[in-house]
Structures are given as structure tokens and as C-alpha cells.
Amino acid sequence: MSTKELAYNIIDNLSEEQLSAFVSLFGLTIEIPNEETQAAMLEADRIANDPNVKGFTNTDDLFKELLS
Predict the structure, then answer these.
(1) What are the pLDDT digits (tens) for 21-62?
(2) Residue 46 DSSP SS3
């Protein structure tokens, strides 16, 4: 197991209280997006994973579509 995998494993097994103490120890802040941002993020995930939504892999194709 790599050091990174070990660290993830340890963090995954911390309780909320322990995780909060860990974050405080390093002076980190956790910003939780507001409700509107959370909704937008969920919508973006839905669109990104919907095979029926047209997507582009380059800007040339995007602009051809926009200008047609």
C-alpha cells in the first residue's frame, strides 16, 4: 500500500469529530457550497453523464455548431 493510499484509508476511517480536529490542526477551512451552487454542480454532473446530451471534444466543432 502506498503512503497516499494509507493516508486516504486513515482519513476515511476517522469519525466526524476526529476529522474536524484533524482539519483544525492544520488550520484548514472547509467551505460548503450554498444550495444554489450544489444544485448547479448536480446538474452539471447529470449533463456530463447523459449520453443524449450533445458534447464537443474541441472548440472548432463547438463553434461550427454555434455558427450553423
Answers:
(1) 988 888 888 788 999 999 999 999 999 999 999 999 999 999
(2) helix
Reduce the DSSP state of residue 2 to 3 states and report it. Answer: coil
Q: How far apart are CA 28 and CA 4, in angstroms?
A: 19
pTM higher than 0.70: no
Residue tagged 453523464 (cell numbers):
49
Query: Rounded CA gap, 3 and 19, in Å?
Result: 19
* CB 47, CB 55: distance < 8 Å: no
Contact 41, 33 (CB under 8 A): yes
Amino acid symbol at 27: G
